[in-house]
Design brief:
By secondary structure, this protein is an alpha+beta fold. The chain has 2 domains: about 1-115, Aminotransferase class 4, branched-chain amino acid transferase, N-terminal domain (D-amino Acid Aminotransferase, Chain A, domain 1), CATH 3.30.470; about 120-285, D-amino Acid Aminotransferase, subunit A, domain 2 (D-amino Acid Aminotransferase, Chain A, domain 2, Alpha-Beta Barrel), CATH 3.20.10. It has 8 helices and 15 strands.
Length: about 300
């Protein structure tokens, strides 16, 4: 696979980043994961807005425009010719002297990595997966701003280690007040008496791209929504639970470990989850069709 690094494409074996890059030394950087479907980077504009905001939050001056990064994405996709994949767009502080003074780093590093994906097994979407409430707590927002999608992922790594030990698909983190925040790599939703509920951003979670799209789809469909401080007890009283991110789309959860396994609702994928799963898939299809139509229009001019 070809990798985009600071303005040009390289073979994976030849792509090199300095060992003095503060992204390597300190996890000083931000990133986005973009789903590629039918060769189209889904909702790329939304991801680039969040990437720019993440840079702003950590005081990293982004020297590339959204247009320039989008063009780099297109070149990477064209070089690799992979219809179904995941793109990782990463901006790090760049090389500089050892130490925490960011003023010493003058040139950020931009890397775009594409990897083929086959997606989760269809049985996961048909029967649901197991999620575990882990002991690791989400970083306090005043310690590490959650709106920055940081490459400093140790908090999530430790939580994922816990969930793996429990045989769970995903680990769910609570904040220091004991409220549900998000998964290690996902946002979380529940359905209570037909109403869609999800942790409020003030609980200290990343504003997911898929999360935002799902909220819009739910509102358009007339589903009542509440963003709230959600306790574990309230999660257990939910009739449905599901996870979202750019790669898994809408993933039903039918078992919740805290640490003993508890059945969610009746143990089957619920109607609201199924509806939103279908609506999101349709949204992806419409996006790909619109991009294809737009490219045909440009070629005809």
């Amino acid at each position: 696979m070809k990798i985009w690094l600071n303005g040009s494409l390289h073979d994976e074996s030849e792509a090199r980043v300095s060992v003095l890059d503060h992204g390597f030394l300190y996890g000083d950087g931000v990133y986005e994961t973009v789903r590629v479907r039918q060769g189209r980077p889904l909702f790329l504009a939304d991801h680039l807005v969040r990437l720019k905001n993440s840079c702003r939050v950590i005081h990293l001056d982004l020297p590339w425009t959204a247009t320039a990064i989008a063009q780099a994405v297109d070149k990477t996709l064209s070089a690799n010719q992979c219809d179904e994949s995941a793109l990782r767009l990463q901006v790090s502080r760049g090389p500089g002297p050892v130490g925490f003074d960011i003023r010493a780093c003058k040139t950020p590093t931009l890397v775009i990595v594409e990897r083929p994906i086959s997606g989760a097994p269809s049985s996961f979407y048909e029967r649901g997966v197991v999620a575990a409430i882990v002991k690791t707590r989400r970083n306090h927002p005043q310690a590490l701003p959650p709106e920055a999608k940081s490459t400093n992922c140790l908090n999530g790594i430790l939580a994922k280690w816990e969930s793996n030990r429990q045989g769970a698909f995903e680990g769910i983190l609570l904040n220091l007040a004991g409220h549900v925040t998000e998964g290690t790599v996902s946002n979380i939703f529940a359905v209570q008496k037909g109403r869609l509920v999800t942790p409020s951003l003030r609980c200290g979670l990343l504003p997911g791209i898929t999360r935002a799209i799902l909220l819009r789809l739910a509102r358009t469909s007339g589903i009542a929504i509440r963003e709230m401080e959600l306790t574990v007890g309230e999660m257990l009283r939910s009739q449905e639970i599901f996870l979202t991110n750019s790669l898994i789309d809408v993933m039903p959860v039918t078992r919740l470990k805290i640490p003993a396994a508890r059945i969610v609702g009746d143990g089957r994928v619920g109607p609201v989850t199924q509806l939103l799963m279908n609506l999101y898939r349709r949204k992806m299809d419409e996006f790909c069709a619109a991009v294809t139509a737009g490219r045909r229009t440009k070629r005809s001019r």
